[in-house]
Design a protein that fits this description.
Layout lengths: L1 E4 L11 H9 L4 E8 L5 E3 L6 H4 L10 H5 L19 H7 L5 E6 L6 H11 L6 E5 L2 H10 L4 E6 L2 E2 L5 E2 L2 H11 L3 E5 L5 H9 L3 E5 L4 H10 L4 E3 L2 H7 L3
Parallel strand pairs: 1-2, 1-11, 2-4, 4-5, 5-6, 6-9, 9-10
Antiparallel strand pairs: 2-3, 7-8
């Protein structure tokens, strides 16, 4: 599967409806978006804690009401053609998803988002398999799987070298985390992970997914190593060159 990172974010402003629509037009199998709660409990699609980078006005999302956030322009920073683009609510993102396609819903806040998220999914009319929850926060994955085990969920992790020359998290730490959270698999950066680690994760009965790869050769390598999805900023290019 080719997953469009924040939509087709190489060609349109990230986490916006134009970026998601372009991803579908490009042949993406899924889109990935970042979600947070507003002050008044709405779920909006934005990566950062504040709006400064994409709107030029520095508001903390969790301390700002939806009406205020919706008045912001989050397209001009990317290009004048996108002037007037607004922060979408999750229902608008759901509405773009074609039959058989998926949303990888990255939770950027805490477990408080789980009840309203489940309500939004139920109201969307989407099939259970069309929504996948992902998060770096272990407690979020655990809360989701405890409340609604029917939805697939992946723990997100990067890899870093340690002082002894090893890599963290270790394989045993990954497996322990997946078991504790109830996650269906790991989704990681491509850095510092190898074929044997991916094989070991899958041998334990978990899925493995990778982000964020725009290079065709690296994408092919991870596909051969067993990655079950590849997240990219340029889904059209990967679909074309990988023959999928």
């Amino acid at each position: 599967m080719i997953v469009a990172h924040r939509g087709a974010s190489r060609h349109a402003p990230e986490n916006t409806i134009p970026a998601f629509l372009l991803a579908w037009e490009s042949g993406a199998d899924a889109i990935e978006g970042d979600f947070r709660l507003t002050k008044d409990g709405a779920i909006v699609c934005i990566h950062d804690k504040t709006t400064a980078r994409v709107a030029g006005r520095d508001l903390v999302v969790r301390d700002t009401d939806l009406a205020t956030l919706r008045r912001l322009d989050v397209g001009t920073w990317f290009g004048k053609a996108w002037t007037g683009t607004t922060i979408p609510v999750i229902a608008e993102v759901f509405h773009t998803i074609p039959p058989g396609k998926k949303l990888y819903c990255e939770i950027k806040c805490g477990t408080e988002i789980i009840p309203p998220l489940l309500e939004e999914i139920e109201q969307s009319g989407l099939e259970t398999m069309q929504v996948v929850v992902i998060s770096f926060k272990k407690a979020v994955i655990r809360a989701l799987k405890s409340a609604a085990p029917q939805y697939r969920a992946f723990w997100l992790s990067d890899f870093k070298g340690d002082t002894s020359g090893g890599v963290v998290p270790s394989l045993s730490a990954i497996v322990d985390t997946l078991a504790w959270t109830g996650a269906d698999g790991l989704s990681s950066s491509y850095r510092l992970i190898d074929e044997s680690t991916i094989a070991a994760i899958r041998a334990e009965g978990y899925e493995y997914h990778v982000w964020t790869i725009d290079d065709v050769v690296r994408a092919r390598t991870f596909m051969q190593w067993g990655a079950q999805s590849i997240t990219t900023n340029d889904p059209g290019r990967l679909k074309q060159h990988m023959g999928r």
